[in-house]
Fold this sequence. Notes:
- The chain has 129 residues and is of the alpha+beta class.
- Helix content is 45%, strand content 25%.
- It contains three helices and seven strands.
- The strands form two sheets. Strands 2-4-7-3 form a four-stranded mixed sheet. Strands 1-5-6 form a three-stranded antiparallel sheet.
- Strand 5 (106-109) and strand 6 (112-115) form a beta hairpin.
- The model has no long low-confidence stretch (mean pLDDT 88).
Amino acid sequence: MAERLKNSTEASFKPETVAQLCVEFWKLSNATKKAIERLPESESRRLKGQLNFSDRQLAMLVDQLGLKLIDFETEGFHAGLATSADNAGDYPDETDLVVSKTLEPTVMADMKVIRLGRVLVEPTKIEKE
């Protein structure tokens, strides 16, 4: 029994599995932040504190595991960026694009992509003088 538990535990700690767990927590945290914004201040204060604590715990654990969660929001989008754009096909190839929203962060370890992120892009806003 102990040997079977040991083998199942080892199998569950693959870097890809841990990366997926981190991404799912990240998505849940972002959804919770949006929900908290809709609550009155008197009701949201405690939830904000709990979420901030959980976010700090995630950051600490991710760091201990040697992982890094990367959010590319506001970055210029290009082929070398370690993320895929769900809507890049909506724009002509020559359009300069910027990441408008991160749907899932990229997870990296030792400069190696463990899990590719997902983003939405939009054309770069060019300021007119």
